[in-house]
Write a structure and sequence with these properties.
Blueprint: E1 2-7, E2 16-21, E3 29-38, H1 41-47, E4 64-71, E5 83-86, E6 89-91, H2 97-100, E7 112-113, E8 117-118, E9 125-126, E10 133-137, E11 142-143, H3 150-153, H4 159-169, E12 177-181, H5 185-196, E13 200-205, H6 211-217, E14 221-224, H7 229-233, E15 238-243, H8 251-255, E16 258-266, H9 278-282, E17 287-290, H10 296-309, E18 315-319, H11 323-331, E19 338-342
Parallel strand pairs: 12-13, 12-15, 13-14, 15-16, 16-17, 18-19
Antiparallel strand pairs: 1-2, 3-4, 3-10, 3-19, 4-5, 5-11, 6-7, 8-9
Helix pairs in contact: 4-5, 4-10
Bound molecules: NADP nicotinamide-adenine-dinucleotide phosphate and zinc ion.
Length: 346
């Protein structure tokens, strides 16, 4: 099936109209007419090949919400017309220990990412959600609660699960002091989700101008990380820090904000490695952890929770043709708080 899309032809190229051939739906496949696709900073890192090994042409997009338009004969969970989502993965081996434990993102054979990757046959390239239709095996399709606005729900498929998973893993609960670093797509979801779990959330941002928004999102505290005093005033304050910064920054300074036995989780992936002095961790038995998206079952739990609590992203919906301009704004931190492409405009 010919599908209209937007692609980058080589590293750093502007995205431009492109046509892809989607497979005809197999027995277990779901065909989804894409309504909206969020723009994640990971799209930008990959289009610029900042992590290495990028595959071109590249059709980014892993925050997909759409309606089912066709299903294969063996599909049980979905019917034509259902509101569904697809996140960062479209398949995995289904047989290894990680898949059995519902951690498909760590599939021992390597999962199939939604784009800049291949299907499990390791030859067919995958193309993401900056496109009119996607065809995905049923077990990697999520149910999106019908009470949520589809455009504002799209970012839950990456920004939502990526922040939900570490909050659950590290047991964010009522009264915990949680620091969220970087108020962008991931950061604003971390604030909303941690606040909904009863935590006392402080936003740590480079932009003083984002203070009022941070409070509206649910933060009770706000501090500017460009001000060195922040690191003395809040020293030893947090139980948990969720770090979403997409660029190089001083991890040691941020670790100083943790209480003893506290945990800082890295979600952002700056292009270069960061140095950490051992004393930043030894002084206080602190943990520096990472977290990669979340498994499929966990993603469904997050979507159901967001449905029950009416949690969605704050989005700026744009025509697909503005994607290059939105990348520029994202690079400047000028995003409030997720760009979402309207696929009706492609
Ligand atoms: P985003 O919307 O661009 O937000 C990133 C925020 O980081 C910015 O809004 C800004 O917030 C802050 N920031 C940017 N440059 C900075 C700098 N030089 N120094 C300090 N702060 C800076 O990006 P996103 O979509 O939330 O993604 C954030 C990162 O997470 C990216 O690296 C992305 O690839 C990664 N990611 C990881 C996973 C995972 O599974 N671990 C999943 C998705 C994305 P302020 O203006 O508030 O300072
Ligand atoms: Zn993402």
């Amino acid at each position: 099936m010919k599908t209209a899309a937007y692609a980058a032809s080589k590293a750093g190229a502007q995205l431009a109209p492109f046509s892809i051939d989607r497979r005809e739906p197999g027995e277990n496949d779901v065909v989804i007419d894409v309504l909206f696709c969020g723009v994640c900073h990971s799209d930008l890192h990959q289009v610029k090949d900042e992590w290495g090994g990028a595959k071109f042409p590249m059709v980014p997009g892993h925050e997909i919400v759409g309606r089912v338009s066709k299903v294969g004969g063996g599909v049980k969970k979905f019917a034509v017309g259902n509101l569904v989502g697809v996140g960062c993965m479209v398949d995995a081996c289904h047989g290894c220990r990680q898949c059995e434990q519902h951690h498909e993102q760590f599939c021992e054979k390597g999962c199939a990412y939604t784009y800049n990757s291949t299907e499990m046959d390791r030859t067919t390239p995958t193309y993401g959600g900056y496109s009119k239709q996607v065809v995905v095996t049923e077990s990697f399709v999520l149910k999106v609660p019908e009470n949520l606005d589809p455009a504002a729900a799209a970012p839950l498929l990456c920004a939502g699960i990526t922040t939900w998973s570490p909050l659950r893993q590290w047991g964010c609960k009522k009264g915990d002091r949680v620091g969220v670093v970087g108020l962008g797509g991931l950061g604003h979801m971390a604030v909303k989700l941690a606040a909904s779990m009863g935590a006392e959330v402080t936003m740590l941002s480079t932009s003083k101008a984002k203070e009022a928004d941070a409070k509206k999102l649910g933060a009770t505290g706000f501090a500017v990380t460009k001000d060195p005093e922040t690191f003395t005033k809040l020293a030893g304050h947090f139980d948990l820090i969720i770090d979403t910064i997409s660029a190089e920054h001083d991890l040691g300074a941020h670790l100083g904000l943790l209480r003893p036995y506290g945990t800082m989780v890295l979600l952002g992936v700056p292009p270069s490695p960061a140095a950490v002095h051992a004393f930043s961790l030894i002084g206080g038995n602190k943990r520096l952890a990472g977290s990669l998206i979340g498994g499929i079952q966990e993603t469904q739990e997050m979507l159901d929770y967001c449905g029950q609590h009416s949690i969605v992203s704050d989005v700026e919906v744009i025509p697909v043709s503005q994607v290059n301009a939105c990348y520029e704004r994202m690079l400047k931190g000028d995003v409030r708080y997720r760009f979402v492409l309207d696929l009706a405009t492609i």
